Amino acid sequence: MSNESQIRDRVLRGLALNRTPGYHFTGNFLDFSFDQVSAQEVHMRMDGGPHIDESDGNVNFGALAVFADIALASNVRAGHTSATRLATVQMNLQFTGAPLSGRLHAGSTLQGYVQNITSQQGVAQVTVTAHGKAVCYGSGTFIVLNPPKGVALYPMMLRKDSDAPIAPLNESELKRDERKVLQLADTAFAGMHKGDAFIRRFWGFETHAITHGASGKLRNGPHVGNRVGHLQGGVTMGLGIATAEKALPASWRLSAVTAWYISPGEGRVIKARSKIIHHGRLTSVVRTEITGKNNRRVMEMVTTHAHRIE
User: Fold this and answer.
1) Confidence of residue 44 (pLDDT cuts 50, 70, 90)
2) 201-214 tens-digit pLDDT
3) I need a surface site. Which of 1, 91, 267, 308 has the fewest CB within 10 A?
4) 151 has a pLDDT exceeding 80
5) How far is CA 169 from CA 9, 161, 242, in A?
């Protein structure tokens, strides 16, 4: 089966899974295996492949961010109910430089709750490994929220690889929004023939360098939304990283990212703007601001980058 056929089947299978409320298409498309979930410990798996790999064979940073975000949040959610709504307050990821390829494993643990505040905010840590080596260390803080007015939240389906397989939908039975998602995938295939990563085209990352930085954007929609229709937090981080990377020459590689989630990712177009705040001989630092509807700030992000070995 060709890469396009594999990805198309994955999209149609993700749409089939998405007809059961409680999760979102982004997670169903990436197809995590929730091998163990408790407040104390979470173990998850995600397979790389043509649907999320970059041209160098490494998993896209945005896909990794979604994986880490869901793993960290699963610790906090497990202490409540599987229908509980959480919002990411802050997340940071430190990369080791080891290859981000093949099957990725995430192991996360709950560190506790922030004390003496009026909200419930849980803190968790995660380690992501591939080929038996740590590729990323991270942590995140998540706040427990009520659903938006008029939105009912259902329990999340935590599928495992050992569960019965779900058949992809037939194109003839697609609903309007589902057909739009498939059309976005079909459009993204054209980019693959030019050497672009499918996932960047599918999620709609558009980035370009500007003086002392870069700008980026994506069109919001069900292919990148979370359970309440806002831009999924890991995808938001992925857009920020892609824009920050564009601010620097290809000789630099991302080494760490810290992001503060300020407001929901709402609006038809989500924009990012990066500014280089330090450009040294061995390390560089980029600040990125992401905005949504009415130019409302969605995220503040700082990334560090290290010079590659030539």
Assistant:
1) very high
2) 999 999 999 999 99
3) 1
4) no
5) 8, 19, 31
CA distance 37 to 150: 29
DSSP β-bridge partners for residue 239: none
Bridge partner list, 128: 106, 136
Q: What pLDDT shows up at residue 232? A: 97
User: Does position 194 have pLDDT exceeding 80, yes or no?
Assistant: no
